[in-house]
Amino acid sequence: xxxxxxxxxxxxxxxxxxxxxxxxxxxxxxxxxxxxxxxxxxxxxxxxxxxxxxxxxxxxxxxxxxxxxxxxxxxxxxxxxxxxxxxxxxxxxxxxxxxxxxxxxxxxxxxxxxxxxxxxxxxxxxxxxxxxxxxxxxxxxxxxxxxxxxxxxxxxxxxxxxxxxxxxxxxxxxxxxxxxxxxxxxxxxxxxxxxxxxxxxxxxxxxxxxxxxxxxxxxxxxxxxxxxx
Length: 229
Description:
Helix content is 50%, strand content 17%. The chain has 229 residues and is an alpha+beta fold. It is globular, with a radius of gyration of 19 Å.
């Protein structure tokens, strides 16, 4: 989302002002959903039945040009982590790859018709800040929190993936696709073998369209082999 003025001008804000206002807009929403806030790293976290949900707000200062704001959501399930550790230990680069679901700002539809896919919000002035605060609050309340609620257990996740068979693929995350397959295996409601074929085909199509990396195909194969043992 670019500035409404479209013309860079001297910043009217300090980073602490941006952070303070965005917390004012999002804090009460997340508090009502039972998230606790860590001001040190600007992270919201909650225990949600058998899962843990963690939302990290990311600030990038490009002073004196602008500030950029984004977020990353991670959903953690002990069962899924244990399975991922069994086949990802040799290729693991960072701890977050073991989470069940990882989503970024780009995975949520934009209200800006000129930028359907947003990787971050750009803030140049107070007007931008007010707009970003409003859009961020709406995204958390009406999209992000409901997704967390639907990911609270293996059973809930299975129903979610069954209703939205392309969802994990459309996040363009090999890790999310693996979770889709793992949940199918654990729940025993969806056909595990058929789901593997569907996910692999979907990944191949997205690799051809340069939406996913070839490593995602390898990751799903490793996941499938681990689940068959």
